[in-house]
Amino acid sequence: MFVTVLLLLVTLCAQRGNGEERAEAQRPGHVSVVIVGGTGDLAKKYLWQGFFELYVNQVSSGNTFSFYGGGLSPADAATPVLFEILKAVSCSKNVSQDRCALLKDQYLRLAQYRQLKSLEDYQELAKHIEQELQQEGITEAGRLFYLSVPAFAYADVSEKINNSCRPTNGAWLRVVLEKPFGHDFRSAQVLASQLGSCLKDEEMYRIDHYLGKQVVAKILPFRIENKKFLDPIWNKHHIERVEIVMKETLDVKGRIPFYDQYGVIRDVLQNHMTEVMTLLTMRLPMNLSSSEEVLQNKLQIFSSMLPLGKSQAVVGQYQAYKTAVQQELNKTKDHVCLTPTFAAVLAHIDDAQYEGVPILLISGKMLDERVGYARILFKNDIFCLQNHNSVHCKPKQVVFYFGHGSLKYPAILVSKNLFKPVLMDGEWKEVTEPTDVNILGLPISDYYVQTPTEQREAYSELISHIFAGRKNSFISTENLLASWGLWTPLLNSLANSFPRIYPGGADNGDLLDIRVKGKDIGYNSEVVIISPDQMGDMSAKGFQVMQGKFRGADMVSAWTEELVERLAADIQEAAEAAVHQGGVFHLALSGGSTPLALFHRLALHHFSFPWRNTHVWMVDERCVPLTEMDSNFHGMHDHLLQHVRIPYYNIHPMPVQLNQRLCVEEDGGALLYEKEVSKFVNGSSFHFVLLGVGYDSHTASLFPGSKVDEFGESLVALTESPVKPHQRMSLTFSAINRARTVALLVMGKGKHELITQLSRVKDNPDKWPVTGVKPADGRLVWYIDYDALLG
Ligand code: BG6
Fold first, then answer.
1. pLDDT higher than threshold 80 for residue 543
2. I need a surface site. Which of 5, 332, 584, 784 has the fewest CB within 10 A?
3. Measuring CA to CA, which residue among 715, 666, 670 is closest to residue 689?
4. Which residue intervals define the domain Glucose-6-phosphate dehydrogenase NAD-binding in the entry (predicted)?
5. Residues 497, 142: Cα–Cα separation, whole Å
6. Mean pLDDT of 392-400
């Protein structure tokens, strides 16, 4: 079908814009574009328009195209729908009416609808593409599949593409995916591995449409161009705070089935706003077009971030949300719905450049205005005695204005009391016309303002990048997982939090104003509006911490978040008492996944905890190099130690690697650690030992059948685990039971059965190792969350 149009198109290559190195390197030829979900909302609103713009720009490039809208409906029903959408595409201002009509006509003739439901449908599509290529005798450049379908269908569609639609002869395959990419770290990891089994990383283009926004895409170039002005001030000594704000006026009516499972943090903070934050703070790459370097610099920011916990966030929900949920999800009136539609989060990057600089990420639906921006507010140490209106005394700021709001166009604004920025490349212009607008506390006349000469939709921009194979505007797997790694603990900790209910629009008044208090954030006003029916049966759960007895020892129980908070507070209390008494606190920490939540919590006790006087010891270690993910020390480092100010010489990793080998008896690693304990710890009696319990009731690395008696008086021993890595080094019961306090932390529904069993069995450390924990002169406390205790 594309023959006639093809003849019109094959002309000599035209010039292409800057940075399209990859596009030039790729051979021209025929490109098949397939939008799976081609009649859906996104396709209708942005994608067909974006591909039309691509087509118009490529008309004289030597490439030819065919476009397929795919969907589950049969072709006879969906074809008219597709063509209605296609007819609505438009040309930019600089294309004449006649030419526009011609291009649109071509575009329509190159497009067709295809049912894409079964594997056979995909096979048919591939056959069709190949037949046309053969008939026309043209070379294939590549195939671009845009998956505009719900995320649950990604794995299935990718598998079908992999099985039937891969091009041959060196042509490329690109598969474009839209968020949501999972709803937490685990699910993102599962999805990534499912997709990874069908598609190579370089074939996947994960879209975050914010990276296609002109202002967002210019953050790095702006920082580079203005390096000489920014270098001296882009740091903790000069930046007062960073704000990344995305206010929306709309509600989420019609999107509830999606939104109610996600909420504002997953919907926009984890992706759009996090991306903006990394672009603002990452180390500048030497080579901006190196996606690898950009990614590595971004990842560095993630690894330097302080963990986010409940005290770093406030959440809200607009009043009408609940009714919308009842209607759209068919819920009864007493349905409890805690999904936040508003969130303000306080983040910190714990490195030499940004340490202590508050980074606020704020977004919400049903707010008073629609506006999106990132502002870097600088400290102003000038005090104007008489003329408060003098430019020196006004806010000093750089604003990346994404659009909407009072300015109406995207722009980068630099307050005139900072510096005059370099004018960006030809696609940007300076705005000098006077307007009577005020942007974030300053009249526009107090700024140097630059804006794109032509406004382009984010999707159109990204589609051209996909076509050019430019990967640095897309989200790599590592980037995605790093971001979920940051947000998942916060999402978990907020799971039972009641959002503050707000009326919506201008009526919100100052209800959502926030206040930063050191490392914590809170609402400025104390009013908490929760209607009684919002509480529903959640109220029955209660949130208090409960005290009791378990196996004859003390027990503290609560919901996970409160439990961890309580344990962290108890450790801090023990630390303060020990330091007060003897100037030092010896803390032995267990490995595994249970303590991670505690590590996050302790990392937040950044300033108040006596870290300087604390020695951190290990309860156990796996016989792997410390640099491996499996290593307990590695986990402890990433989740706790790197975030607190503890002297290096107070940290005592277990010497599992000696003489370039792992845990060999004659290397005497266990004995070495024992000597270190005896040397530093008074009477080898730790002040506090934190233990977990495995499903088989092992604790530390003392497993059932370990014959613990054989360790005699040794404090440290090499042990064997039934699971990999099998070899371990562990404190023995002799060491553990000398401690002043031993805490046993047990969390999660999965441990309920174990807890039930443990409540009945007699002491038998060979079979139930944890029953061997019996501090001789110290205190044992069980910290069991409600899930583990009550199932
Ligand atoms: C989307 C979110 O990713 O971004 C929406 O799912 C949100 O909830 C939208 O409204 C905002 O994008 P923009 O471009 O309008 O700022």
1. no
2. 332
3. 715
4. 34-216
5. 48
6. 94
CA neighbor of 465 nearest in space, from 90, 50, 39: 50
Mutate which of 208, 267, 370, 461 for ligand 1? The one with the most ligand atoms within 8 Å of its CB, which is 267
Q: How many CB atoms lie within 10 A of CB 474?
A: 20
Intervals of CATH 3.40.50.1360 along the chain: 551-790
Q: List, in sequence order, every residue forming a beta bridge with 364; answer none if it has no partner.
A: 247, 342
Cα 267 to ligand 1 centroid, rounded to whole Å: 8
| CATH 3.30.360.10 residue spans of the chain | 214-514
Highest CATH level, class, for 2-210: alpha beta
Backbone angles phi, psi at 536, to 5 degrees: 45, -140
Per the CB < 8 A criterion, the answer to whether 457 and 50 are in contact is yes
User: Among residues 66, 146, 76, 71, which one has the least CA distance to residue 108?
Assistant: 66
Q: Classify domain 551-790 at the CATH topology level.
A: Rossmann fold (3.40.50)
**Integer Cα distance of 315 and 363 in angstroms:** 10
Sign of CA dihedral 37, 42, 46, 50: negative
Which residue in 30, 209, 272, 643 is the catalytic one? 272
Q: Could you tell me which CATH number the domain at 214-514 has?
A: 3.30.360.10
Report the percent of the chain where pLDDT is more than 90: 76
Beta bridge partners of 448: 414
pLDDT over 70 at 526, yes or no: no
| Residue 623 reports pLDDT greater than 90 | yes
**Domain boundaries for CATH 3.40.50.720 within the chain:** 2-210
Query: Shortest CA distance to 685 belongs to which of 577, 582, 553, 586?
Result: 586
| Site of tokens 């990891």 | 189
Q: What is the pLDDT of residue 711?
A: 83
Q: Across the chain, which distance is largest between two alpha carbons, in Å?
A: 93
What pLDDT, in 10s, does the model give residues 408-430? 899 999 999 999 999 988 799 99
Phi, psi of 19 (to 5 degrees): 75, 10
What is d(CA 545, CA 146) in angstroms, rounded to the nearest whole number?
50
Q: Which of 14, 22, 108, 21 is nearest to 60 (CA)?
A: 14
What mean pLDDT do residues 261-285 have? Answer: 97
How high is the mean pLDDT of the chain?
Answer: 90
CA 377 – ligand 1 centroid, Å: 25
178 lines ligand 1 (CB under 6 A): no
Mean pLDDT of 220-231: 97
Percent of residues, the chain, with pLDDT higher than 70: 94
Which atom of ligand 1 is found nearest the CA of 271? 3
Instruction: Indicate the pairing of strand 500-502 with strand 514-517.
Output: unpaired
**Residue 480 · residue 192 · CB < 8 Å:** yes
